[in-house]
Give the backbone structure.
Amino acid sequence: MRKLDFASLQVRDLEVSKAFYTNKLGFELSEMTNPGACIFKYNKGEASFAIRKPIGNLAGKELGVGASLWFAIDEKCEELQSQLTEKGVTLLGTINNTPFGKTLLVKDPDGYIITFLEQTKTTNND
């Protein structure tokens, strides 16, 4: 395996999740259409993923446990934190410093963790 090409999350209510990702997090809908899914772009269209109606019966099942999608961001985590707070998005803790850069975590309506990454700038002095 070389790279993950696409991710799709099963959600309980497609319209509620679609509104969360577009209105609260700022994802754009892709031109691609599917009656059972919403396909998104983020970060100038570089990343894409989908939310979809369940493939199977989700009754009584906990979604989102153990899953986290990471999206690189161009702005500072502090700016994004302020924007998301203004929109009423529930943040999971504070901004974290990781070996990859600063991260900010939010939880979507189905419990999936969305991680926004302000990547550490590296320089090559060779």
Remarks:
- The two ends are 30 Å apart (CA to CA).
- The domain at 8-56+64-119 is CATH 3.10.180.10 (2,3-Dihydroxybiphenyl 1,2-Dioxygenase; domain 1).
- The chain has one domain: 8-56+64-119.
